Every structure is written in C-alpha cells, then in structure tokens.
Queue: 2 jobs
Job 1
Amino acid sequence: MRIKLSFQIKLFLCLVAFSSLLLTLIGAYTYYQLDAQLHRDLGARAQVQAREIALIPTLVDTVKNNDTDGIAALMNKIRASSDASYIVIGDNHTMHLYHSEHSNLLGTPMIGGDNKEVLEGKSIISIRKGGIGVSLRSKAPIMDENNQVIGIVSVGYLKSHIDSLNARTLTQIVGSIVLLLIALFIFSWLLSKNLKRQMFSLEPKEIALLVRQQKALLEAIYEGVIAVDPQLRIITINHAARELLDLRQPASSLMGREISEVIQSQPDFFSMTQLEQDTHDEVCRFNHARVIASRVRIMQEEELQGWVISFRDKNDINTLSSQLSQVKRYADNLRIMRHEQLNWTATLAGLLHMQRYDEAVRYVEAQSEGAQEILDFISQRFSSAALCGLLLGKYASAREKGIELRFDPACQLRQLPASLNETELMSIIGNLLDNAVDATLHCSAPHDAVELYINDSSNELVIEVADRGPGIAAQVRDTLFEQGVTTKDKGDHGIGLHLVASHVAQAHGSIEVSDNDPHGAIFSLFIPKA
C-alpha cells in the first residue's frame, strides 16, 4: 500500500536527509583534513626534537665513546620533558645505544629500513614499524666535529597514540554534527510547519490548481482587474483590463511595473491619501477611457499586502441604462394602449347605459374602422410580430400626445438583414420615433404628423423618419451621434442616437441627416441585407 505523505512531512524529510548527508560529508572531510594536519604537525615536531637532540655536544661525546650509561643519563632527562612516544639513539651501524621504552633492545639493530638516508647526513620523516609498533617518526644524524655521521637520533609517535588523538577529535566532530542535526531537525520541522501555515494548509498540487483557476477566472471576468503590491507594482492584470486601457504589451511585460507608468488617472486614483480607504463605483478616467472603478485593500493578519482595482467602461453602464429605458418605453406604450382601450370601453358603456344604442353602434363602427385599418396595414406590411407591436404602441402613444404617426404606403419589411437582429431593429426605430415625436412637440400646436418609411424591396433596408420639429442645430450636427450629445433641455438623454449609430455601424450601414422643409429633420438609414 502506497503511503501518501503531506507536503510538510516531505519537506521535513528532504531537509533532514539533505542536512544529514551534507553534515556527514563535511564531518568526513574535516576529519580527513585534521588527521592529515595532525600527521604533519607531529612529524614536524618529531623532526625538530630529533635535530635539537642530535646537536647536544654531550650526546655527541657519549655516542663517540659508545657510553651507553652516559647516553641514558642524558636522554632520561630529555625524555621526561618530551611528549613523544619514544626516543631512540643509535650508532653509525644502526645499533641501539638507547631506547626510552625498552632498555632490553640495547645492542639490537634499529629496524624499519629508513636509516640509509640518515647515515648520509639527511633528516627524514617516515611511518614505519619499529621495535614497539608502527609509528610516525623523524630521524636526524649525529655529526662529530668532522661532520662525520657517528649516530642516529629517532623521535617517534606511535600510531596508537595518533589514533587516540584522532578519536578524541572524531568524538568532538561527531558531537558537533549530532548537535547540528538536532538543531536542523527542529529548524526543518518549524520551517515546514510555517510554510504549511503560509500556504493555508494547502498542498502544492492544490495551490497549482488554485493558480490556474484564478487565472481562468480573471480572464473570464468582463471587468478589468489589476492587482498591485504595497509598492504599487503590478502583480497581475487580466485581458479585459489591457483591452479597456488599450495596452498592446503582453501581461508578462507589465508585471513589476509601477501602476502610474501604465495608467494615468484623473482624478489621482492611486495617491497615498486615496489608497488609505476602499472605494466603490468611482467615476474617473484611466488613460483615454471613462471608467467606473473600485479599489479594495488586500489584508493579511492586519498587514497590508496590496490592492485590487476593478473597473468597467462607463459607456457600458450608459448603454445598459438606455436599453432599460427602451424596455420602459415599451411598457409605457402598452399602458397607453390599455388606457385608450379603457376610455373606449367606458364611453361605450355610458352610451349603452343611456340606451343610445344607435350612437353606440356608430361609435363602435368608427373606432373599429380606424383601429382595424392601421392594424391591417401594419400586420400585412411587416413580418416581425415584435415590430408590429412596437409600431402599434408608438402609433397609440403619438396619438395620445396629439401627433399622428403616418406610415408611407410603400412600407414593407419581409426579412431582417443578416447583420441586424430584431431587438436592435426595434431599438433603432423606437429611438428615432421617440426623438421625432419629442422634436415635433417643441413646435406650437396643431402639430404636424411624423412620417415613417420602412422598405426592404432593394438590396438594402431603408428606414426614414421625418419630423416637423425645430430641426438640428448646426453646433451639434457633427457630434449628434456621440454619447451624451443632445438637443433636449432636461432628462436622461444623449444615449438614444448613440445606440442607433452603434447598431447601424455594427450592421455595416450608414446614416444621413437632412433638413425637412420648411422645418424639421429627416433621418435616413441604409443597412445592407447581405
């Protein structure tokens, strides 16, 4: 059965294993270096002692006279102050004259095979097996006044003595490594635990999944989103933000840049005084775009980690508002038709109550004839049921305001252009008719009729709306279709014609505005069918 370990345990075990291996290698290398250094130091010490002993005049005389008792008396004093394992004196025939550890070796040959160079007058350091075991030793020649080699001084440290020194050193190294390992165990456990807490107890796979999900969510969000760190450097930005701000660079090239280098805001949305508090739905300008922006602080354990800025195009809100207003107008049209129907029903009920049956019949016939005529015309000429409902509503609404909506006899619409849907067509016609009625109401009564022409008999859909209002002022004619531009004095205006122009442009059509003699304006729209 496969055991699944958590990230904390894996990290702890990896840190412990790596630390143990590293400390073991360091300990082995240190022991090797200390052992080599100890051999060099003891060899040098033995050599110094051997040379100094070989230069003692009394020793030279006693060796020359082969006085073993004199040699022993002299060397016993020196041996008492030396840390060497042994001191040996031999003659020029490599025979023992003195041995500090074994007096029974006197007269026996010095073994080890390293006496030849010494007899030639050289001082050596070697590791050999002698009479009492393997040792690190140094030998120096004893010279007479004629510089003739008359004897040998050997000072040595037994291998067992060196091993005991190394064992003491090794014990210290192992003790230090064990203490370091214990400290590393504690450090590794605390580090892995702290990392686990900072990762909100999530596994790396879970974090990777969250990162991918966050990236997908950011790209799926319609609003622009930018996150910055406490130094106001960009740490993430989604595609919608780059598109709204018209940033051509890839997101990777924007990371780490200060937000003020990327966005010029009016008013200053990123000043320190503004950043002290969160804000929602603030209207401002980012670069060239008018946006509605929000800013929220990122807090972790009462510590500021940065900010998240989200924003959307202000025009989108205005467009939505206009579309909602259009729906409201449809509802108003239905209310007007219902109101007219109630008035008609109340009048008919009054005539019947007064038993004026002939007048009631004539009233019903008159009302039915007029309503049926316009109903038959609209239903026969236009194939869209939604458009028929809109035109009937607009007809009733205009009549309630004292204005006749007059349809051109050549009106017809059998099929919508491919690039224009039914909702967009109703938005176009509804906004044009509303503007025409409002413009006509600006003139004194009696009001002239508003004329409508819709025809798709050629290769394009033609829509014309003519009014007898005051006309289009010269100062707004060039900017008439821009958002916010209006000739009306009050109310929520400046969006209808902008919507009309947007729908027509999307359908690859064109708009012409001309004067309607003697006064008024004519809006002509040409939308290709293909």
Job 2
Amino acid sequence: MTKRSGGVSRARVRAAWVGGTMLGLAILAPVAQAQSSEPTDRTEEEVVVTAARTVLPPNALPLTIDIIDKAALDQQIAMSGSVTDAVAVLTPSFSPTRGKLSGAGETLRGRSPLYAINGIPQTTPLRDGSRDGFTIDGFFIDRVELIYGSNALQGVGGTGGIVNQVTVAPPRTEGWSGRTLAQVTAADGFESDSLGGKVAGLVQYKAGIFDATIGGSYERRGVFYDAQDRRIGINLTQGETQDSRAHDLFARLGAQLRDTGRLDLILNRFQLAGEGRFVPLGGNRRTGLPTSAVRGDPPGIPAANRAEAASLSYTDSDVAGGNLVAQIFVNRTYDTFGGEPNAIATFQDPAIAPVGTLLDQSENRSKKWGARASYERAVPGFEALVATIGFDALWDKSEQRLILTDRVWVPPADFQSLAPFAQANLKLFDGGLRLAGGVRWENVKVRIADYRTLASTTYDGRNPATYGGVSVKGGTPGFDQLLLNGGVIVEPVAGIRAYASYAEGFTMADIGRITRAVGTPGTDLGNFRAIDPVISNNREIGVEVKRGPLDAGATYFWSTSNNGQVLLALGNGIFQVQRQRVEIQGLELNLGMRLPIEGLRLSTGYAHLIGRYDSDTRAPDGIVDTDLDGTNISPDRMNVAADLASGPVTARVQTQMYFARNFRGKARPDPRNDFGGYTVTDAMVRYQTRIGGFYLSAQNIFDRQYIDYNSDTRLPDDNLAFFAGRGRTFTLGWDQRW
C-alpha cells in the first residue's frame, strides 16, 4: 500500500526477501505509474514492488521498503540534482552524498547499497569504481524502490540494501504522447561559471500491439559555490558532477504478444564527463578553510563515466496459472579517473621515468551479461500458499588500467554467478498472519590470471613509495553457499502490522583494491583468503500504523558479517581493504500526519546507527572494539518536511539534521576525524498551468556554511580533500506532458 509523504507521493511498504529481482518490465504498465510529473493528491493504492520479485501485495512481505514515486523523485532532483542525491536526502539511513562523481563511502545502513536499473545490477562485483549511482538520467526513471538491509534479492552486492530504478513505462493510449523539460541552475551570487542548464524530452507512440519510447537528455553543470561564495574544490582523481556535461539516450520498444504476455527491449547510453577547466586550490584544515578551485588545465583526460546497457525481457501473468518473468541483459561501463598535477606515488616506475615525474591515470572497464527467470503461482489445491522458483546467471569481466602508459593496475578478472532459488509465502487467518521463507543457492567463481603488480604498489607512511613489481600467481577461487531468509507478519487490525525477518546477503570484497596491493612475491590467489566473499545478515523487527491521518513506523535492525570489509586510509589518498568482523545495529523511525488544513502534511524520519569492527588485524579475536568511521557508516540524522498541495500550487520545505559523532575504540581513531554535524534546509514551489508546470527550487535556502560529512571524517592531513557543502543554489524549470 502506498502512503503520501506530504504531497510528494512517497510510498513506504514492507516486503520480504524472495531471492532475486522481479525482472518484469511489462508488469510496469499497470503498476501505480505516475503519468505526470505534476504532484497529485492520490488516495491509497496498491503498489507492486518489482525489486521484490513477487506480485504479492506489499502487506504480505516482512521487510522494509521505501518507494519514491515520479512526483517525489522529480521534486528532489530539481532541488539536489541527481537520483542518488534524491535517495540520500529522503532516506535517513543513507549517507550524505559527497556531491562528487564518486559515491565511495556512501552507505545504506552502514553497508554498500546495490544500484540496479529494472533489476539489472550496475555495481561491478570485483572492482567497485563507485560510479554506479550515475548510469542513467533521472528524467527516464518513473520511481525508485529501496529495499533495506542485507539480502540476496539481486544476488551479489546487496549487503546494505538495493536501490532499484524503474524506467518509464510504455504508453497506454494509441497515438503520440511525450514529455519535455527545460531548467536552469545557478548559485545565489549568479556567478557566470555557476550557471548550468538541462533539456530533456521523450516521445512515445503506440499502434496496435507495438509501442516505442525514444528520449534524450543533455545537462551542463556549472561550478558549485559554498555559502561563503567560494568555489567548491575540484577532486580531479575521483571526478566531479560540477563543471561537467552529461547526456543520455534512452529507448524502449515493446510488443504486447498476447493479452497477458509482453516483450520489451530497453536500451540506454549515459555519459558524464568533466569539462577540465579548473584545478584544486588547497584549503587548510587547521583554520577551517575549505579546498577551492581556480582556472587551470588539469593533466590527462578529465574524469568521466560511461554506461551502456541493453535488456530484453518477456513477462506473462498467465502461464499455466502463474506469473513468468524472463530477462537477458548486457551492460558495459567505463570509469575514467582523472590525473593529478603532482605525480601519484603509486604510479611511479623508474623504468619508465624518473621517480616523481611520471603522470598517469586509471580507468575501470567492466562488461556484464546475464540471464534471469522466475515463475510464481499459488499451489494448486492450496491457494493460500504462493511459491516462486527461479534461476539467475551473471558474468562480469573487469580490469583497471593506467591509460596513459597502458599498464595493468588491477589484473583482468572474470566473475561468474549461478544461483537457483525458491521462495514460499503462506497466508493464514485471512491475512492476519503470514509466513515467508526461502533459499538461494549461490555459486560463484572468480578467475584471475598470473600477473605482476606495479613497480610502486604500497605506501609505508614515511617514504613516498615502497617499490614492488612482485609476481603473483593467479587462481580460480570460488564458493557456494545457501543463503536463507524468513519472516512473519501479524496484522490483527487493518492498518496495524508488526513483522520480524531474517535475511542473508553477500558481496565480493573489492578484489581490485586487494590484488593491486599484493606485496608478497609468490602469493597464490587460489588460496588467498583476503578475497573471500563478504557474507552478511540482517535481523529486523518493526511495527507500522497506517490509519486515518496517521502514518507511522518503527524498525530496529542488527547486522553482522564475520569476514566483513572495512576501508582504511593509507595516507596517500588511496584506501586499503581490511577483512574484519563487522557489527551494525540501528533504529529507524518515521512519522507522517495529514493536518486538518486541506492539502497540508507534516512528516519526519530519524535514523540512529552504531557500527563497530574488530581492529586486531594480525590476530583477530572476533570482538568488535572500534567504531566504523565516516568512510564506512553514516551519521545519525533527522529529516523534517512540510508539504502543501492546493489547487495548481504544490510546495515543500525540508530539513536534514546530521548529528555530531565521535569515533572511538581500540584502534584509536584520529580525533580530527570526529564529525561536527550540520543542518541543511531546501524548498520548492510549483505552479501548474495549461502549458505545463513551472517550478522554482532552492537548495540550502539559509546559505549554511558547512564541511561535508565525507571530508570531515577522513584524511585529516589532506588539505586538497577538505570540501565545503554547496551553498544556496536556485533552479528554475518547466516541464510538460502532451
């Protein structure tokens, strides 16, 4: 069931883990699609969560899910700029975004989320370039489904949760239709280099059983300014969304082959690249002066991200009385990291150039292809029991190269995952009690050939680099494991539910970071335990009240992984993976209330997270003794929002309060990385006319100066990575459906 979150039609539902993604693209047409970006005052309606891989109603499924519908998504993108920013703003358990092209360190419930588009994973399993939040323009997304906690819904990667972006639905009516958008963005000082703009459009046509949707978007972002009217610093290596250009080409071609069966082909090509017009100007952490930017020519190629994807799916809601979903897909990504004005110590090789003079930059390259299928139906003669069976297959080939000297930094690695699964859902006492449970048998193999590390591979804290160039024996490590899930929902009165669930998930450790840093000659990867997968679990209990004007929920969860993954800074801007036991627990509270004033709604959300790990690297004792730092967990946060919908006018004011946090423990975290906290408020107003909707939004309306969370909690000696948050920024736009 959907719920309104103050005029933005944000739905919160509960769902159980069923072992994979829905995959169904045809099912999207009848599923609560937002047919206009215009906010509407909808009544409660049932939503099928495609990422949950079942057509059962959400109240049958015991896990935490949020749905951000089209109206809410467009509203947030207008204020914050991207789908990732929208998710982060609306989700208290999600880390504040870095405002960069890289999403490294951005977590959901203290673990990495898996980004997907129509169920297709965007994350690279073996070398996470942290660009997976920028693979499609939000203009082509109808809603975002967030599934919280460790689970194996999509197979590899969902240890923190799943962010599934569902693309635009096919046209429903015969003939031509479409949508257009134009907007301009500027800092409040209206500096010329802060100006940015976006144009986008799509055309849809339906004739008989065939339909087509074709669209494109182009966005040019200007330089970002902080609240003190200084340019925000440029991160040349990881990349920027500021001072960049992006374009996206999207197509969806479909055929209704029978009343219940549909074939869909979806194509997308997205690219975001820096303009390369600025270089960083170092700040001063001791005095609080953040990093800025000045005009200049950075070396090499500006950081960029390119993603190309194609998928073909068939869905049929009546195959022998059940629902069939099948999909094949291919996906290629290129993550280009920028160069630095000063030679990076790790890339030095005296055989190529004198130490300290060699400039280089790297690029992740990944190609995925796979197939997935599922079949769901009620058991004949026992209709209260609904069963799902399915099979997922995924192959990925990844490497990281130094593109200016054509050297291999991360050796080519082949990933293979084959996973059958089954799920059952039992309805008792006319829905007053439901039981769900299932299993996924995950079979993974990784193949890495023999290779040689870079001449410079490690940092010892004193010298610029310790020269390596060691030979490493490849191998074919693998594992197979049964991943279990189960849950129960009790709904004694309509609108009041309690649930409890358990789910196991897994991800691969960042093998790229691990293999490129091997420093011991003769290491055999076939027996190298550091590349074992991360197996995590999620235990969760919650209660939900949804009656009259009240919409409230409370969830407590705890998650553990015996061989988890912690990113630790080496001191040279490069992070190393350490495998340690990790424990995370948290409390999430949500409250929404429709007020007696017509169209006015208030809402709030709160998340409290605690994460610790075993810091005994040489002799781990399994006892967590040190807090996870800002690279690995988000701060406590409270969101407050007010929404108004009155005739043609809609408006929203929202505040995010990030609370201070100190990091302590046996490993003696650097107190300079303690977080001071900050508060940011955004607003938007929209007026609907016959010729479209006109809107004006303002990010950080009180022009609050602050240092972003990621900068404040890591690399305390790096004055080039001390970034302020974005100051007051205006966006004026227009969109129209026709």
